[in-house]
Amino acid sequence: MATLPLFEADLFEERSLFDHRFDQTIYLLGTLGLLERPVQVTDLKNAVAERYEIVFDFSAYAGQSIELRNDQQANGIGTDAEYDDTDKVMKFVVSGTAVVDPSVVPAALRTVPYPASSTGIDHHFRFHRSRGEWLINGVGFKDVANRILANVPRGKVEIWELENSSGKWTHPVHMHLVAFKLLSRRNGPARARGGRDFIEPYEAIGLKDVVWLAKNEVVLVEAHYAPWNGLYMFHCHNLIHEDNDMMAAFNVTQLQNLGYNETTDFSDPLDPRWTARPFSQADFAAREGPFAAQAIGERVQQVAREQPYSELPQVEQALEQAWANGTPQKRHVEKYKSNGMVHGARHRRFVV
C-alpha cells in the first residue's frame, strides 16, 4: 500500500479524482490532520487548496499502469471552465515485482479536537459577483475602510454561514488562523438549485480550513477563534477570483482582561518593527547598507530572538480561564469604529 498526499493547485480546477475503471477502494485518512477514522471511497471531491492524505493498495495491479484522472464536472458539481488535458493528473507504473508490505490501515486514527459546540449563526457571508467584481457581502479587498467584515473576541467559538450566490461559479473558501468543523451543507434558494444538500463522509469526521462552496450551496462552519489575536484573511482560493478582490478580513480582538501579559504579540499591523522602511535604490543594487549580508543576518537574528508564538501553552491556559464562566458575550473587548478599524494604534512593550 502507498500513502499519497493529494492537493489542488491555486488556479481554478475543481475535481472528482480517480479513474472509475478500476473501482478500487481508496482509504482516505486525513485533510487538515488525521480524520477520526479512515473513510473508504472510490472517488474524491477536491477543490483548489484542499489537501487529502490517502492510502491506495497497488497489489492487485502488478505490472500495470494506473492513471489518476480528473472527472472535470465532478458529477455536476464542478462548473468552471476546463482546458485540454486537465482531466489528466498523473500515471502510476506499478512494478511487476512483489514486495512484502505488512502495513494495515487502522480502524481508528485519532480523537479530533473539534471546537466546543455553539448555537446560532454569528455571521453570514455571501460570495457573489457584481459589476464584474468578485465580492464578499458587497465588499472587495481593495476597500480598505470596509474589508474587515467581522470582529470576533479572542477565544470565542462562532458559527459562520457561507453562501454562494454567484451563479454558475464555485468557490473554495479558505479561512486563515482557524481549523473549522463543517456542520451542514444545503442548496440555496429554490430558484437557484444546483448544489449539494449533504456533507461528504470524509468532510464530516475531521477539521478543515478550506471548504468547497459549489454552485448555489450554503454551508455552516464552526471554529474556535484562537489562540492568537489580530487580523486574518478569508477568501476564495481560486486565484482568478482572489486576485480580483474576493477576499476580506476578520479581526480576532484582544480580551482586555485576558490575565496574561504576552511578550510575543504580533497582532498590531502598525508595529514599527515590521512596517516598511525607506531605502536607497543604490544600496539595493550594490547590496550595501540594509542589504549587505551582515545587515540581513543581523535582522534575521533579531526576528529569531523574538521567539514568535512561543507562549502557546500559557496563552491557551489564559484563554480557557477567561472563558470558563460561561458568559463570554459579557467579556469586555477592545472597541472598534463602525468600519472595523481600531481607535488608534495599539503598541505593547516587547522583550528582545
TrEMBL record:
Gene Ontology MF, one: oxidoreductase activity
InterPro entries assigned to the protein according to its UniProt record, in alphabetical order: Cu-oxidase_C, Cu-oxidase_fam, Cupredoxin
Superkingdom as given in the UniProt entry: Eukaryota
Pfam family, one: Cu-oxidase_2
Segments forming domain Plastocyanin-like: 128-253
Matches recorded under SUPFAM superfamilies: Cupredoxins
Similarity annotation: Belongs to the multicopper oxidase family.
PANTHER family assigned to the protein according to its UniProt record, in alphabetical order: BILIRUBIN OXIDASE (PTHR48267:SF1), CUPREDOXIN SUPERFAMILY PROTEIN (PTHR48267)
Protein name: Plastocyanin-like domain-containing protein
Lineage of source species: Eukaryota, Fungi, Dikarya, Ascomycota, Pezizomycotina
